[in-house]
């Protein structure tokens, strides 16, 4: 069982702050693409919008309901992805995936992730990894099928 | 604080923690998720071991004494269970993997043969998905109308509405005896009366949250089919039963085909075994049946009236303590005596999953989510709730730990 220190690492001040005051929490009327992320197990549901200027993400936003982890993760994601190219965003996705699933990061990657490192606290809480990754899977879907609206679900554990 | 030497009701566990090996091995654990599954008494675990170490053989098949003993153990378990749930006709107790399989059996074997386009099926807003989706899908495949009875202002099933939904074309009325998400105990007798008044519907009652907590006499309820799960009442996972009127079971087609359920197998057709075997294809789960019978023994030794009184006391204490916390919203009836041992709540500005994770670190196990009742959650306007649920090993100290954990989580997530 995770201890109090792990709980403190999960709910760092930056996570709590982004939960209370999520950044870019709005619709994007002129979005190039969007995607819904849903976790039927806990009822979390969010939509992310992306506007591309060529290969570059010129704006990104999200809205929805969810736990502190899923909201903070989406909020931090919008700050990290805005201004990045499609391929840069894909690389960040991979690194965040490794981070939340507990893969050790080298110093360069850790530095590059910056504020996103706060999401690493979930690696001690297997039941919560899906919360941190929900927005990121929605991002990936939106980019993979960037001309249409798609829905993604983070599955495990299976809802009853 | 009472100055007498009698502790307040619910202060101590009804059943000693030492009866439950998992709880005895983890003294700091506060298990408040018994509505999801109960912990298992040593008596049940011992019964499983005893079966495998003394009687194990394939029942109904061998000519040797050991197989006869296994057959006897399986039949004795059915008789014991029938006695516990108030069913006189033992062979109408069909062993299944639990309430979910039982409901699917009724929906498939009875429903597909009897429900047609133009008919309707009535369920309630309060149902667990297991008593909602099989009927919804039956309606979709048959072209029947699917009707949902909404809740009234007090959060109970709207009986006046129910009376208007049930008509001469209603083929099924399905409802839970106790809500898994809210703990609400529904007025089964009145609902059966309403269901019968308008026509000839099959009345199906989901007792998964009732049998572990209330004294249930199925024969007296007057329903056509009753289902429950063994794992919520101290029995093994994968145990449970369907109880259905003999006349219905005898006219229904089998649900599964295979060994044990047949009488004669000809090249081009087959005939079916007698009840209950007709609905128990394949090698039966004797272990589950024997364990479930032991759970009945365990609960009878405690006394179901004592179980009920213990849970009401704890539920009342939890409701009172949680209501006193600013920002906490309770769902379901305000009357603790109208509930099984369930308290469902939310905390302003803190998501239920964050509450559950914080409580987990304190060793307190609660359920957070939609409790397999998404249609109900929509009506409540809640994406999810925190649910604490009690059973025989729960104590007033468990409630104290829950409340302290909720307050601590509130402080952690407080703004500023």
Description:
The complex is a heterodimer of chains A (160) and B (416). Chain A has a single domain, classed as Alpha-Beta Complex (Sufe protein. Chain: A), CATH 3.90.1010.10. Helix content of chain A is 42%, strand content 19%. Chain A is built from 6 helices and 4 strands. In chain A, strands 3-2-1-4 form a 4-stranded mixed sheet, covered by helices on one side. Chain A is globular, with a radius of gyration of 15 Å. Chain B is an alpha/beta fold and 416 residues long. Chain B has 2 domains: 133 residues, Aspartate Aminotransferase, domain 1; 254 residues, Aspartate Aminotransferase, domain 2, CATH 3.40.640. Chain B has a 7-stranded mixed sheet with strand order 2-8-7-6-5-3-4, sandwiched between helices. Chain B has a 4-stranded antiparallel sheet with strand order 11-12-15-14, with helices on one face. In chain B, helix 2 packs antiparallel against helix 10 and helix 11 runs parallel beside helix 14. The N terminus of chain B is likely disordered. The interface between A and B is medium-sized, with 28 and 22 residues.
